[in-house]
Design a protein that fits this description.
The protein is built from six helices and no strands. By secondary structure, it is an all-alpha fold.
């Protein structure tokens, strides 16, 4: 009798083995995320934060009015971000939390269509 079924019989054991094989950082019987996965997620978040901060800083330096609208910053934030050094941006990016703010389109009295908002954001 062959006990190796390669997951074809749909048993719970074979499904668990397949899921574990597809996601190697999660061990069988462990419902949490492994330490290496947390490190990868933290590094990804830090990189995403840094990229966002660099874009926002560039916009704050070269087009403060656009930074006000596009990134939802106030004048004090624009001033502070435009004066930050690369080392300060790296430090802020590694804070362990997302610094990105995604603003939903606001409804306006003049009924600006969403495709116009999208075109403005793309520029």
């Amino acid at each position: 009798m062959n006990h190796e079924n390669n997951g074809r019989d749909g048993s719970a054991t074979s499904q668990k083995q397949q899921a574990t094989a597809q996601v190697p950082h999660i061990r069988a019987g462990n419902s949490g995320v492994g330490a290496s996965s947390k490190n990868i997620l933290n590094e990804d978040l830090k990189l995403l934060n840094l990229q966002y901060l660099l874009l926002a800083r560039n916009c704050a330096i070269h087009s403060p009015a656009e930074a006000l609208w596009k990134y939802g910053m106030n004048e004090a934030m624009i001033q502070s971000l435009s004066e930050m050094t690369i080392n300060q941006l790296h430090e802020l990016a590694g804070c362990g939390r997302a610094v990105i703010t995604i603003l939903p389109p606001k409804t306006t009295d003049n009924n600006v269509p969403l495709n116009l908002y999208a075109a403005l954001l793309a520029n």
